[in-house]
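User: Can you model how pyridoxal-5'-phosphate sits in this protein?
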Amino acid sequence: MSVSKNLKEIKGRMRVEADVSGRVIGDVQLIAVSKRQADARISEALAAGHRVFGENRVQEAQAHWLESGYRAAYPDLELHLIGGLQTNKAAEAVALFDVLETLDREKLARALAREMKKQARDVPCFIQVNTGDEAQKGGVTVSDLADFYAFCTAECDITVRGLMCIPPVDEPAALHFALLKKHADRLGLDQLSMGMSGDFEKAIALGATHVRVGSAIFGARD
Ligand SMILES: *Cc1c(COP(=O)(O)O)cnc(C)c1O
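Assistant: Here's the modeled complex, given as structure tokens:
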């Protein structure tokens, strides 16, 4: 297993899919999801020149990127939070991440806005949408999306860049990707974080600007 080989292969498949579906490959960013991966694999991705990574827990991300010294060593790193965020971790999240993809409730929006002001750091966000209406999953419902977007932007002055979703495992992901795209268009948002190892090509065909790929790059997680 070689991380650099996997990265090359995934980027190649992304390019082919962009070509086939009439997208511009420069408009699609690969987020390498490094959660629950060994440091050796992460350093392999860095050595291969990759700089955009996704993490789903604040504490683990601090270990991977701060305590390792990588954050300081690679000024062009771009770290995305892709897992649910607790309000009491807002300060750490604002300090560490470059993009927060799981904005999904008013209390969190308020806490993030407060921290961004305090730290004088404007961290762009994606609103996570629970497109499958799953009780155990984070994200706003489709019916609450427009009001929540207005709240985040007008009330909290948060920079909302786009929408993110994690489709239900037992349904065709394409339906959820198309739904997310439709709602982003309605709100005038042009960024979409959708697609993982098993379905990133479909996501690109349906408008993804960010795909989040973990195991296909790094191998199975701990
Ligand atoms: C873990 C995770 C991924 C990556 O999943 P893979 O199937 O390993 O590519 C993508 N998005 C989110 C939100 C995740 O938690």
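A couple of observations from the model: The chain has ten helices and eight strands. The CA atoms of residues 197 and 216 lie 5 Å apart.
User: Helpful, thanks.
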